[in-house]
Amino acid sequence: MPIKSFKGKLADGGLDTVPLSTNNGTIGYRIKKFELFPSEPGVNIGEHVVKIYSIPQTTATGTIDFADNTILASAYLAMNNQPVYGNDIITVFENMTFNQDIYITHKDNATGISVNYYIELEMVKLSLDENTVATLKDIRNIKSR
Questions:
Q1: Rounded CA separation 128/86 (Å)
Q2: Which terminus of the chain is more solvent-facing, meaning fewer CB atoms within 10 Å of its CB: N or C?
Q3: What is the pTM of this model?
Q4: Among 3, 32, 10, which residue's Cα sits nearest to residue 103?
Q5: What are the tens digits of pLDDT across the range 13-39?
Q6: Which of 4-8, 14-18, 78-82, 105-109 has the lowest mean pLDDT?
Q7: 111 closest CA partner among 15, 64, 47
């Protein structure tokens, strides 16, 4: 199936929504790529934490908790304008199929600057059973909050 890509820029504390839901839910998605890119390369210091959730978020935090089953992906980009320190990036995402909107948060734990993100999602045709399971997972996650 085809790949859909999304990109954006999030300020410190920023929240974003990627609209994916359809009327019948027969198209699912899997994260294939999730990358961060500094908004001002070589200029600033930053410790960016960007997370992708399956349910809406009201705040962005710099804490990552993999016990939270609503987190679909997390990325951490540490950058320093001193060449001797270099930059580090860590990205982790689940091999999970979802069929609803996803929600992105960003928190810079260092200086409060913005960051760019890039996501590639693989589109997957869902059977009626898979559609039902994906939708029920989302409902369960929302109710557990």
A1: 48
A2: C
A3: 0.86
A4: 10
A5: 999 999 998 777 788 899 999 999 988
A6: 78-82
A7: 47
DSSP the chain: --EEEEEEEE-TT-EEEE----SS--EEEEEEEEEEEESSTTT--EEEEEEEESS--S---S---TT-TTEEEEEEEEE-SSTTT--EEEEEE----B-S-EEEEEEESSS---EEEEEEEEEEEPPHHHHHHHHHHHHHHHHH-
Q: Strands across the sheet with 3-10, in order?
A: 3-10, 115-125, 27-38
CB contact at 8 A, 61 and 76: no
Nearest CA among 41, 38, 133, 51 for reference residue 94: 51
Per DSSP bridges, beta strands 115-125 and 3-10 are antiparallel
pLDDT digits (tens, 9 = 90+) for 98-112: 888 999 999 998 888
